[in-house]
Amino acid sequence: MSEVKFVDFVAKKNDLQDQAKPLQVVNGKGEIVNQEVFDKYSDEDLVKFMKLMVWERTLHQRSNALTRQGRLGFYAPTEGQEASEMGSQLAFKPSDFMLPAYRDIPQLIQHGLPIWKAFLWSRGHVLGNDYTDENVQALSPQIIIGAQYIETAGVALGIKKNKTEDTVAFTYTGDGGTSQGDFYEGINFAGAFQVPAVFFIQNNGYAISVPRRVQTAAVTLAQKGMAAGIPYVQVDGMDFLAVYETAKAAREYAAAGNGPVLIETLTFRFGPHTNAGDDPKRYRTPEEEQPWFDNDPLIRYRKLLTDKGLWSEDIENAYVDEVKEEIKDAVKKADEAPKQKISEFLENVFEVPTPEIAEQIKAFKAKEAK
């Protein structure tokens, strides 16, 4: 008598490998693979999308240089993730609430934060966290890995309880963030209360130096949404149109009261984790990096738009010069911010200072007055 298996776990594990390919509109060769979606956009739209990516690449290059000059503080490079970041952010409205992480400064600026204030945030200046005058619907970038997922669940619950129409909360984390407890708590809470939230996982291959392949046995990071009862999808994060289309659909779904969505974008950070001493050459090989460099989202769309007669080297250079001037003005304004005092640092710790801190404030103010 042959043994009948009540549960075949080998088969179940094999089923996990049967995942659909990431969503895509334009492939790595600059070829259109979804004509129906591509045809929805005008030539003007395509140029706008390209400019957004060039804007972010230029912002990265200038920020990188400013950091090396000692004119910025903390900086997390974004080169390579332009399609993932700009394609997603563009899908949201100014009234939507953004909860960024530290690599999401470009999206935060596009959401309404002036560049000069982003630079002040990098320098650790208190004005970099003051969004009062700009009325930006966002919190300051989160440094704690994954914590923004819990914050997003809470903000989205507030949106739901306040019955705020056509509004969602959205956030980002990296592949490493999905290994954090806050990630699971955030999506589980969001799923349980069916809040209007869109969660992005920017899977750039590494949690600092830890490769994606050893972080989890999950075939995709997107499928982690299944345990929380959240619809999920994986998209080519080097394809602006694919990311934009997916993010738009997710926002529409969440804003309609259907609950949250989890989106994984497959992308790659070309440089270090941050400029604070990380060296990717210590944990990545040239053989691993080159296919991703060849898959640069700017190269992909540059070829596509050039073939259509919409883009050229002259057009790009002229636009880069515009962006550099914008950044130059932002640096000048950031430099004009008042210097911070130790007494002010202490005053910002608590709304009502403790007796000990109150004494320190008094002492430092006396020194600063001399």
Essential attributes:
alpha/beta, DH_E1, globular, 370 residues
Account of the 3D structure:
The protein is α/β, with parallel strands linked by helices and 370 residues long. It has helices at 9-16, 35-38, 43-68, 82-89, 105-110, 115-123, 147-161, 181-193, 240-258, 286-294, 297-307, 313-335, 342-347, 355-368; strands spanning 97-99, 169-174, 197-203, 206-207, 210-211, 232-236, 261-266. The strands form two sheets. It has a five-stranded parallel beta sheet, sandwiched between helices. Strands 4-5 form a two-stranded antiparallel sheet. Helix 4 (82-89) runs parallel beside helix 9 (240-258), helix 6 (115-123) crosses helix 12 and helix 7 (147-161) packs parallel to helix 8 (181-193). The longest helix is centred in the N-terminal third of the chain and has 26 residues, at 43-68.
Spatial order of strands in the largest sheet: 1-2-3-7-6
What is the tally of beta strands? 7
Low-confidence stretches: none
Query: Which percent range fits the helix content?
Result: 40-55%
Q: What amount of the residues lies in strands? A: 5-15%
Shape summary: globular
Compute the CA-based radius of gyration.
Answer: 22 Å
What series of H and E elements makes up the topology?
Answer: HHHHEHHHEHEEEEHEHHHHH
How far from one another are the termini?
A: 96 Å
Main β-sheet: number of strands, strand sense, barrel status? 5 strands, parallel
Broad structural category: alpha/beta
What is the count of DSSP helices, taking H or I runs of 4+ residues? 14
Mean pLDDT: 95
